[in-house]
Amino acid sequence: MRLGLIGLGRIGAFHAETLTGLPVVDSLVVTDAVPAVTRQVADRVGAQAVDSPDALLAAGVDGVVIAAATDAHSALILAAVDAGLPVFCEKPVAGSAAEAVQVLHHVADTGVEVHIGYPRRFDAGFAAARATVLSGELGWLHTVRSTTLDPAPPPPAYVAVSGGIFRDCAVHDYDAIRWVTGREVVEVYATGSNRGDDYFTDAGDVDTAATVLTLDDDTLALVSNTRYNPRGHDVRLELHGSKDSIAVGLDDRLPLRSVEPGATFPAGQPYDFFMDRFHDAFRAELEAFTEVVAGRRPSPCTIADALETGWVAEACTRSLQQHRPVRIDEVRA
Ligand SMILES: NC(=O)c1ccc[n+]([C@@H]2O[C@H](COP(=O)([O-])OP(=O)(O)OC[C@H]3O[C@@H](n4cnc5c(N)ncnc54)[C@H](O)[C@@H]3O)[C@@H](O)[C@H]2O)c1
C-alpha cells in the first residue's frame, strides 16, 4: 500500500515513523508547508518528498493521512475525497462545527471513507472501560471524571489556529466520554482561566478549563484540562456507578506525586507527552486506517461521529464566552 502524509509537525513526524513501520505500508509520500521540514522528515523515514498537497494527491497514493494544522483540515479533506482517496485526518474535522457540517455534506456526496483521529478509541484501557460500562458491571453511572493535563503549552502559532482549548484539547475528553459511556451530551457549562503565558489571552483562548457535562441519561461528567502540568501528560478517566467504580490511566506512570505518608504509588517514570502515553493507540489507529484503505472495514470514527464531539466543544466555547450553561441543541441549531 502506498500512503500520503500531509503535515509533518509534532504529530505528523511521529505518524511518519509509525506509518513506515507498518508492514502493510510499502511506500510513503510526505509534504509539509515548510519545504525544509518535508526534506528532513522524508530523509529520516525514507519517504518520498513532494512540494505540495496537490503533488501528493497526484503521486499515485491509495490513501491520505492529514496531520497539518487544524485550520488546513477541511480544505485538505475535501481535496483528497474529490480525488477519490480515503482519508485519515487528525481531530478536529475543522476549525468550527459549522465548517465541519459543510465537510460532512460534501464527503457524503462522494461516498469516500474518512476516519477522524481520536486515539483513545484505540487505547487498551479506554477500550476495557467501554466494555465494562456496556457489560452493566458498574450499574447505572452517576459520575464520570475525565482529565487531560498537558505537560507544556504548545507554541503561540499553534494556539492561534487551534480553535481554542475546548476544540483542540478537551475534545479528546468529550469524545472518550461519548464513546465509553455510549451516551450523548445534552448540556454543558464551561469555564476557564489564564494564569500562564499571555499568548493564550491574545488568541482569545484559556490555558486551563473545567467543564460540566450532562449526558442524555442524566449522568454527570466533569472534565479538567490545562496546558501547564510539568509533572507529565496526565490522562485519566474515572467512571463511578451504582455498583462499582473504575479508572483508566491509574497505573505506575500516572504523573501525580502522593504525599500520603508511606504511599509508594505511583512508582514509575511519569508519561511525558501524548506520543508516549498513546504510543500503542496511535499505531493501532493507523493500522485501522490501512484496513479502511484496503476496503476491509468502514471508518471507525466518521465525520458524523466526530461532529457530535465537535458540537460539545462548540457549546463549551459559547458557554465560556457567555458565562452560562449551553444546550447542545442550541449550537446545533
Ligand atoms: N490525536 C491527537 O492526539 C493529536 C495530538 C496532537 C495534534 N493533533 C492534531 O494534529 C494537528 C497537527 O498538530 P501538531 O501538534 O502536529 O501541530 P504542529 O504545529 O506541530 O504541526 C503542523 C504542521 O502542519 C504544517 N501545515 C500547516 N498547514 C499546512 C498545509 N496546508 N499543508 C501542508 N502542511 C501544512 C505546518 O507547517 C506544520 O509543520 C492539529 O490539528 C492537532 O489538533 C492531534
Helicity range of the residues? 40-55%
Domain module count:
2
Mean pLDDT: 97
| Secondary structural class | alpha/beta
Instruction: Kindly provide the radius of gyration, computed on alpha-carbon positions and rounded to a whole number of angstroms.
Output: 20 Å
Question: How many beta strands in the DSSP annotation?
Answer: 13
Small-molecule binders: nicotinamide-adenine-dinucleotide
Strand order of the largest sheet: 12-11-7-10-9-8-13
What is the string of SSEs from the N terminus onward? EHEHEHEHEHEHEHHEHEEEEHHHEH
Sequence stretches where pLDDT stays below 50 over 5 or more residues = none
The total count of helices amounts to 13
Distance between the termini: 42 Å
The coarse overall form would be globular
Estimated share of beta-strand residues: 15-25%
Looking at the structure, the CATH topology of the largest domain is Dihydrodipicolinate Reductase, domain 2
* CATH architecture label of the largest domain: 2-Layer Sandwich
Query: What's the CATH H-level homologous superfamily of the largest domain?
Result: Dihydrodipicolinate Reductase, domain 2
Q: What is the CATH domain class of the largest domain?
A: Alpha Beta
Which sheet architecture does the biggest sheet show? 7 strands, mixed
